[in-house]
Design brief:
Length: 117
């Protein structure tokens, strides 16, 4: 997706309903915001958290979107990277004496925007 804001071109990619809690994914996405895309990819490849693989895929998709529009790939940086909370699956855990406690299986929306510096 291409849009022009104040003369700069932005390309965006997203992963909706990712099965990871937003709180866990935000720890990783905060480390790449504002970095060059090549440095962000390198940092994500060495990160051992599960969400790093998901964010890496979204970042690569945003870079491919920019490449299709013939952007200068050496000057791409992560303009915006955010994790929004999605709907959560409601599950129940059986407890003692016939009780049940709720469990929230949370989902996330991963959105990455890249731009040319």
């Amino acid at each position: 997706m291409e849009s022009t804001v104040n003369g700069t071109e932005n390309w965006k990619a997203s992963h909706k309903f990712a099965r990871i809690a937003p709180r866990k994914a935000r720890l990783v996405v905060d480390t790449i915001r504002g970095q060059w895309c090549s440095a962000a990819l390198e940092q994500l490849s060495f990160n051992r958290r599960r969400s790093a693989r998901m964010i890496e895929a979204v970042l690569k998709s945003a870079m491919v979107n920019a490449d299709e529009q013939e952007a200068d790939m050496r000057r791409l940086f992560v303009k915006d990277a955010r994790i929004d909370g999605g709907p959560y699956l409601r599950r129940w855990r059986p407890k003692d004496r016939g009780r049940a406690h709720p469990i929230a299986k949370r989902t996330s929306h991963i959105i990455v925007t890249v731009a040319v510096a």
